[in-house]
Design brief:
Layout lengths: L22 H31 L2 H34 L9 H23 L2
Length: 123
């Protein structure tokens, strides 16, 4: 009788298999990008309205909202391309970003607070 186990383990070799990425992942990335762009168009419309029909405080707020909208557009574009590259490579790391939206929300909150402060201290 043999003292070796019935099922023997071979050397730990990793077999490289291609990762299948569902097409819906790419479509979800594009849908998220378009959602971010929709928000920037709404914010830009608010900025244009303030610029055309506002006083001095409105024009300052319009510039701030325009800068925040352009920052969000740039973030959305960079994130979209980064995720598209990761999807094409079949990367298994997560595609989420926790820092970017937080910074963008704080920038938008700062613009709104400056708008309120300027509006209520005007006089």
């Amino acid at each position: 009788m043999s003292t070796q186990p019935l099922l023997q383990r071979t050397a730990q070799k990793r077999i490289a298999l291609p990762v299948r990425v569902e097409p819906k992942v790419s479509f979800a990335n594009e849908r998220t990008f378009l959602s971010w762009l929709h928000f920037t168009v709404v914010l830009g419309g608010l900025a244009v309205g303030l610029l055309n029909f506002g006083d001095k405080v409105g024009k300052i707020s319009a510039v701030m909202f325009s800068l925040v909208a352009m920052g969000i557009m740039l973030y959305a574009l960079v994130t979209y391309h980064w995720r598209a590259v990761q999807i094409r490579k079949g990367s298994r790391e997560p595609y989420d970003d926790r820092l970017g939206p937080t910074i963008l929300c704080l920038a938008l909150l700062g613009a709104v607070i400056v708008n309120f402060v300027l509006r209520f201290t005007e006089g």
